[in-house]
Design brief:
The chain is about 75% helix and about 0% strand. By secondary structure, it is mostly helical. It has one domain: Orthogonal Bundle (Tetracycline Repressor, domain 2), CATH 1.10.357. It is elongated and about 60 Å long. The mean pLDDT is about 90.
Length: about 200
Amino acid sequence: MKEEIIEIALEKFLLYGFKSVTMDDIANSLGISKKTLYTYFNNKTELVTSVTDHIFTVISSGIDMICKEKKNPIQELFDVKKFVMENLKDEKSSPVFQLQKYYPQIHACLKEKQFCIVQETTQENLKRGIEMGLYRKEIDIDFIARIYFNGMACIKDKEMFPLKKYSMNTLMDFYLDYHLRGICTKEGIKELETQLHLHI
């Protein structure tokens, strides 16, 4: 039952946001009483923590599987983007913004874990891209990996990039294009154009 609660809560949070969804909403969706819900989670904060831990595990495991396939680094980035979007339902409610605003400690903890994963996988992606001649050999790997992570975090700011104007999927496409054009060789640009065409 606990796993089912987490799955339903995750679906609701991604669709409507962490603040908007109440414990009553989740209990009603499951057809159980709020009292029963509280036997598994003492409060909403505890539930939000479990949900964010769950989605982090799912996404980090999926990214790890994609990276193990050792596809060319540009295709890898597009595959990761597609996987993340499928699991975050295009983030229509800007859940990250609500998590940061209403659950800052949970957000800070999640961001730290995300940074460790993204830093490691991005650095590996950059190294392989340089070896394959797709990325420029003179780029600073640590700097680019940090800029990449921070840029990804920035595009989730709904005040800077309102959802009415940009879907998260569109923003991710724009950002990948922006990121790769700054580090690619001529061969890398050709591969980027191929991937952009495939993902239209």
